[in-house]
Design goal:
The complex is a heterodimer of chains A (111) and B (113).
Chain A: E1 9-13, E2 18-23, E3 31-38, E4 45-50, E5 55-56, E6 61-64, E7 70-75, E8 84-92, E9 105-110
Parallel strand pairs in A: 1-9
Antiparallel strand pairs in A: 2-7, 3-4, 3-8, 5-6, 6-7, 8-9
Chain B: E1 5-7, E2 10-13, E3 19-24, E4 31-37, E5 44-50, E6 53-57, E7 65-68, E8 75-79, E9 88-95, E10 103-104, E11 108-112
Parallel strand pairs in B: 2-11
Antiparallel strand pairs in B: 1-3, 3-8, 4-5, 4-9, 5-6, 7-8, 9-10, 9-11
Classes of the chains: A mainly beta (111), B mainly beta (113).
Amino acid sequence: DAKTTQPPSMDCAEGRAANLPCNHSTISGNEYVYWYRQIHSQGPQYIIHGLKNNETNEMASLIITEDRKSSTLILPHATLRDTAVYYCIVRDSGGYQKVTFGTGTKLQVIP
Amino acid sequence: DTGVSQNPRHKITKRGQNVTFRCDPISEHNRLYWYRQTLGQGPEFLTYFQNEAQLEKSRLLSDRFSAERPKGSFSTLEIQRTEQGDSAMYLCASSPGRGNEQYFGPGTRLTVT
């Protein structure tokens, strides 16, 4: 799986949009971008994934650049409950698909 | 609750003892994964099952570790002769098949004294 690079930490004001960047410059054509988050003392939670088109669900939006070398996870209206570590992961669609986590971005939502 | 469950949630044991953790995946998910997470790090892959077959083991899984999924439903992870370095959160995840996201349980926190 391709390696990803994320900032170690970010702050966001409550009610504002949180934009979490991820670089994956070595991504290959059949690799998807996945985002998970881990709230303190809980297991990771799947958020969203995409291949090349932008994606939106009830939790977040995923914007993938045209060259697919970077992406941004957007939480449109951050709440205190969104404080967590956010992991950007690149995974092949084939195989057994173990998830290779990095150290992620610690997002602190500030009241 | 139809999510992934893990038991126990916390385990404190003395060095040298054996411990066993259980994971119950989401019903009908045929893929089951074990991960280990230490403080400040992301989860690290340990092993993977498709139904009852163990198809991959990480180098992290030393001879003291063994995992089973005897009937393709729940799974157990056993650690023999525990060491202080085994202290970590042990996470289980399941997925319904290829290309699908994984659903994680709450984890079992192991402390070896």
